[in-house]
Amino acid sequence: MKTINDFNFENKTALIRVDFNVPLNDAFEVTDTTRIVSAKPTIIKILEDGGSCVLMSHLGRPKGVQEAFSLKHIVDKVSETIGVAVKFVPDCVGAEAEEVVKNLQPGEVVLLENLRFYAEETAGDKAFAEQLSKLGDIYVNDAFGTAHRAHASTTIVAEFFPENKCFGSLLAKEIESIDKVMTSGEKPVLAVLGGAKVSSKITIIENILDKVDHLIIGGGMTFTFVKAQGGSVGDSICEDDKMELALDILKQAKAKGVQIHLPVDVLAANAFSNTAETQIMDVTKIPDGWQGLDAGPKSLENFKEVVLQCKTILWNGPLGVFEMETFSKGTIALGDYIAEATKNGAFSLVGGGDSVAAVKQFGFEDKVSYVSTGGGAMLESLEGKTLPGIAAILE
Ligand code: AMP
To answer: Where does substrate bind (predicted)?
Structure first.
């Protein structure tokens, strides 16, 4: 696996695919700089080598050229974050961009206009990728958030750098973290899968059964498993058409020696509301009119014991409806246990969709080993898929 550390960038121009798809407010100000901060180590290493950087990214989903999606809005924030005055080019390909890049001096950084102003980007157009390839000597992919897309700038462009392509430090770290959980992590390995539906996590569960020793299943998924085994789940979220599948998963887990841990009790409510009447209930005895919206205290005690004995932990998906305070306690408790296990030396990776939001909201970001920067890309990695943006560098 080639990374930026395998290259000396002295007098070279790095064409870097970053993920600067940052949130903007109505005044077009960046409201969360995480993605810019994450790209900084790669940029700094290249500049310190004596190289220059051409940054390319998408922003949102524009339909053609739309001012609101211009990356010009973020230039000042990028300059401030990386500590270098960044030049902006109002196009991502063509004569002007090529001219700017030709005159680029070591230590300089330019940001190109939104790649998605061209439909060719998401179409993975080869001619467009070739035009991009003229803007650097070495191609660096540091955008995990788009690594699951075979777009021109994330995948196709790599063809034009057969020898001179590598991962940036952010993408390398994502790959290493996933690898730790999926293949090289210290045992026992635990996956905690929560969230709303079995149907959206099924491929992950099936793939992960070969990799883990313990699997905690929580959140809304719980009730499909409980009902499939004959329990009463009341009005809890449940996918009746996935009950067969749930039983099959339990059977597969048994055959593979994976211990599955489901909640035994839940915090149930008489309405899907933060101010509903609530009661702790046995997970198999929820009456009609009530729905389980968070893990109960006995379940949490069980989960704590499992988490604290594991050395490698993957967390994807909340244990309850964490967006409502009343039902956030299970997810917070789980975060506490994972933080404690991490402090005791375990490796913990949080990734994919809502778990990242939960981890940030409850302040666990610095208490786990790694928080992934890619939602969809992380989910596809956990499903066992080879991401095209990663494959393109490895080829
Ligand atoms: P996902 O994107 O699949 O990780 O699902 C996350 C969503 O699952 C969050 O918005 C939670 O509110 C929701 N969720 C978690 N537990 C439950 C539950 N018991 N009932 C309904 N929704 C839940």
So the answer is: 19-21, 35, 58-61, 116, 149
Query: Looking at the domain covering 185-382, what would its CATH class be?
Result: alpha beta
How many alpha carbons fall within 13 Å on the CB side of residue 58? 23
Question: What is the widest separation between alpha-carbon atoms in the chain?
Answer: 72
Place of tokens 């899968």: 193
- What is the reported pTM? 0.90
User: Does the annotation flag 17 for ligand binding?
Assistant: no
pLDDT tens for 140-169 read: 999 999 999 999 999 999 999 999 999 999
On whether 136 is known to bind a ligand per the annotation, the reply is: no
Ligand 1 atom at minimal distance to the Cα of residue 219: 16
Q: Fold match between 4-173 and 185-382?
A: yes
**Which residues' Cβ are closer than 6 Å to ligand 1?**
195-197, 200, 219-220, 237, 292-293, 317-318, 320-321, 323, 353-354
Residue nearest to atom 13 of ligand 1 (CA): 196
Residue spans per domain, the chain:
4-173, 185-382
Annotation says 77 is catalytic: no
Backbone φ, ψ for residue 150 (5° rounding): -90, 60
Name the active-site residue from 87, 134, 376, 385.
Answer: 376
Q: Which CATH architecture has domain 4-173?
A: 3-Layer(aba) Sandwich (3.40)
Q: Cα separations (Å) of 143 from 60, 153, 172, 213, 279?
A: 14, 10, 10, 31, 45
**Are the C-beta atoms of 278 and 321 separated by less than 8 Å?**
no
Active site residue 197: yes
| Residue range 83-134, pLDDT digits in tens | 999 999 999 999 999 999 999 999 999 999 999 999 999 999 999 999 999 9
